[in-house]
Amino acid sequence: MFTRLGYLLARALRNVRQTPFLFSATVLTVAVSLAMVSIFILLVINLQRVGSGWGQEIQIVAYFDKLPSQTKRLEWQALLSKRPEVAGVDYIDKFEAYEIFSDQLGAEKSLLEGIKPDVLPASLQVSLNEDYRSTEAVEQLATFMRKELELPEVHYGREWVERFETAVSVVRLVALLLGAILVLTALFIVGNTIRLALYSRRQELEIMTLVGATPFFIRTPFLIEGALQGVLGGLAALGSIYLVYYFYLLENLQVLLLSIGDFEVLFLPLPVQGGVLLAGLLLGLLGSSLALRRLIKV
Prior knowledge:
Blueprint: H1 2-18, H2 20-56, E1 59-64, H3 70-81, E2 86-92, H4 94-105, E3 122-128, H5 135-147, E4 154-155, H6 158-200, H7 202-210, H8 215-256, H9 270-295
Antiparallel strand pairs: 1-3, 1-4, 2-3
Helix pairs in contact: 1-8, 2-6, 2-8, 2-9, 6-9, 8-9
């Protein structure tokens, strides 16, 4: 059994050595296809984490152009604290707002050099209980703050969050469509590579059939070759994605999303990395299988 397996592996490696350019081109095609889809998956994973973080930390903020008196401010805080939706009410003065924003910028806080702390407005920040974080509950409380308390400039970012969720959906849809197109392209190229290899050995394969070689014995080396192309393409895809992540996304996506504070851009989770390798393996096997069905009638 092991002797036969060794022979089949040796034949598969011989096929690779005889067509190195085609083999490399196929590996590259699989790698590019999987890498492009995986980049979108990486973006979706991190953007969804951002959206989840916002959902957990949703707040309603009332900004003040003119500072309210302490009596009025305490009255507003007392009225808001009595409502069941409200988990807490904090008054943030201009200097605290400046410090918070500076902390959010992190390594980029040098952007604030030359800017006076009093340029930022004071505000009341209202945090919500977990059971009242729906859009309807937030809108009701915001309406109460505007109409009943007559608080100026009440914001809770509904429009921005909706646009963000739409953007995530678009990225997810693009990933699906692009993935389908690239998978079909990779299948076509893997199949053509195996098909060319079969054509170059057609006479040899016919002789093997005449002397009694089984379909399994004939097909297996080509299936191994396709699987090898797919797995190597998957590994190359993961390597290239990590380089893009480490040298570009890790810093630039962090800066882009600095408004949410401490946000760590994550690489693809291990199950997703395994899925990329499995997808490469299946691409190689399926492409090889389709080519073999067409050209080997045994």
